[in-house]
Amino acid sequence: MHGGALAGWLLMALCAVSGASCLSRARAGTRQERRTARSEAVMGFGMAAMAVPAAALSLPDWAWAVYAALFGAAALRALRPALGGGHHLHHLVGSLAMVYMAVAMAPAVTGSGGGGHAGHGAAAGAGGIPLLTGALLVYYAFYVLGSAGRLLPGTAVAPAGGTGQSARGPGGSGGGTDGRPQLMSACRLTMGIGMFAMLLTL
């Protein structure tokens, strides 16, 4: 996000691919699954937009307010489901983290006299609130480790059972359905890594 151009482009591509994958999942499954996939797609594309290198795109000063408003609305939307715990709570934390990053960058942007990404370097120097940034880093570090731990046993266990083996085989409808949880977990892991990397730049 505020680092080297290559790192920024790689992070942007990672988040954009994750967002596109989530968007593709939004066309199938239950109503709740589609809603979750749409929320994760918004998060992925939002992270991709924030990760564009400063030299590549100059955003207007009000762009950060739009980011904050968009993810503030996403946080309000996730608030009620989050009361039940589970992954909805993670959506709430992620939306609030995006609001926090947008707000942390906004003063440097508006004070720089330049547009959008031109203020990124100054915003990175400001760093937001160190204690809150550190708490979010710890949260996402544990989230990434936990997600990776859940994903790896799933790939190891699948071949052990007959149904797991066929689910990993070439594509029938059963393979697509059985493979969806692993794809979903991989997307969440990817976005967790992306969020951790973005928070490191504050």
List the helices and strands and how they pair.
Elements lengths: L4 H21 L5 H21 L11 H20 L4 H26 L7 H7 L3 H28 L4 H6 L5 H28 L2
Helix pairs in contact: 1-2, 1-8, 2-4, 2-8, 3-4, 4-5, 6-8
Can you walk through the features of this model?
- With 202 residues, the chain is mostly helical.
- It has one domain.
- The protein contains eight helices and no strands.
- Helix 1 runs antiparallel to helix 2 (31-51).
- The radius of gyration is 18 Å and the shape is globular.
- The chain starts with a helix and ends with a helix.
Q: What tags apply to this protein structure?
A:
202 residues; mainly alpha; globular
Output the structural class.
mainly alpha
Regions with little confidence, pLDDT below 50 for 5+ residues? 109-126, 155-178
Query: How far is the N terminus from the C terminus?
Result: 9 Å
Shape: globular
Total number of beta strands: 0
Work out the radius of gyration: 18 Å
The overall pLDDT, averaged over residues, is: 75
Number of helices: 8
